[in-house]
Predict the 3D structure of the following.
Amino acid sequence: MASLRELAKKKNLLTGGHRLCAGCGASITIRQVLLASNYPLVCGVATGCLEVSTTIYPYTAWRCSYIHTAFESVAATISGVEAAYRALKKKGKIEREMKFIAFGGDGGTYDIGFQALSGALERGHRMLYVCYDNQAYMNTGIQRSGATPLGAWTTTTPAGKVIPGKPNWRKDLTACVVAHNIPYVAQASPSHWKDLVSKVEKALETDGPTFINILAPCPRGWRYPESKTIKMAKLAVDSCFWPLYEVEEGKYKLNYQPKEKKPVVEWLQLQGRFKHLFKPENQAILEKFQANVDKAWENLLALAQKT
Amino acid sequence: MKWDIRKIKEWKFYEHPQGITIPEAGNAHYYPTGSWRSQRPEINWDKCTHCLFCFIYCPDSSIIVKGEKVVGIDLAHCKGCGVCAEECPKQAIEMLKERV
Ligand code: SF4
Ligand code: SF4
């Protein structure tokens, strides 16, 4: 496991000069993922904040091979690159050991790219898929996605007289990926960089498809001051909304257990998108939110004990 | 490869690389985003222990590290988000109002 001193000596693969917002959680996440790699990389990015802001023609912030692909197809694109690499390697045309990473936001992964992701996992490509989950379609102006939590205000689930924000709970994508029985699946957060980096290292050494779901707080869409991005990620972990765990060959492991499980309102109250939930008439939504978090957490604890 | 885009505005469509490829890796480095900033981080060197937390949390790769030590801030790219100041365990970074 690399120390910060070692990481700081490595080549920085995402340069400054990208156009992601100040304090963007996605850029912190991607920097940490790229720093973890010890190999030449081919990265693909689905349409989303990361893609539009890091590769505005004629500029690119990527210092490795990079392919932009459509919203729905990054898993298909990178699995194709990996297959081509294997063929060339077999013919002796490439000797170097290389790694392949597909990046998608929650829109490009939970929703639009889900089919391509599922197919790539099932075909068994030796690639890592990283979802940076900022919990809505932020790039097009904060529309709800399958990852948006219950009660969140977005421009397509506006909180008002008719609905109190998003009426549905979020999809548990990590669990969906686990159900594909691939060798390595994990959930991570940029606030816990050491855990994140070691998960990426592990995934890149795995022979087969791997997946890491990473929470990437978004100051614009979540409505909090941009200096608090890491605090937001940390509170999501400490309230057990976003548990850090991994599933290796079907075996669950909890990587971090908060000393004291914080009430989820501590995380919600700092974000403008949940402001309306603190009105007396919406008390039931807050309770439901907490109940959902508790249930998922207990379920995870049981799985970690059982497997 | 070094790719000269100084006259890109005058290029005809056929002068652009096919498939809109960008042949120079990481050329966003030449694109300054420092003008976005309304506040600027300043490091108090008496307090800094070079723990490098600011380095791992900066979204804009703007903490300059040389030989295991923080040596400064890349003000051409730093957007002034204040994450570094917020996360510094020694409160060694202060955000100052940027002069206009
Ligand atoms: S986080 Fe603070 S103490 Fe640590 S290296 Fe940065 S400025 Fe120095
Ligand atoms: S203010 Fe933000 S962009 Fe500037 S150095 Fe600190 S963390 Fe990086």
